[in-house]
Amino acid sequence: MKASKDDKAKTQSKEKAKIRRWILKAVEDVEGDKGATAHHIQKFLDSKEDGISSRPEWKLILKKLLDSGHLMKNGGRYVIHKSKKTSVKSSKGSAASKANKKVTKKQRISVKK
């Protein structure tokens, strides 16, 4: 009995992951920075698997993607949220980068003498 519950949970998890990938792909496929509407996402899901957009779980997955920050809503359209990367020359560095800076300063001093 337990094995069947585990199998059912695994298949549900795989289904959700598949829908999640398809939602992200639907938003990514929109040309330009306009973003995808909910109707566009529904059409994309139905093109992959018939009747999948009639299930309520795709809306829950979409909401989780919004909450997690993978997607953003921009005027009724969904766009992929790209995180801003920090520059390499930030004042906060790792211990290794700070050690390398100290070594290079010591090397510079010894070379000048």
TrEMBL record:
PROSITE patterns: ENTH. Residues 1-113 form the ENTH domain. Residues 99-113 have a biased composition (Basic residues). InterPro entries: ENTH, WH_DNA-bd_sf. Coiled coil: none annotated. Residues 88-98 have a biased composition (Low complexity). Transmembrane segments: none annotated. Residues 80-113 are annotated as: Disordered. It comes from the Eukaryota. This is ENTH domain-containing protein. It comes from Araneus ventricosus (Orbweaver spider).
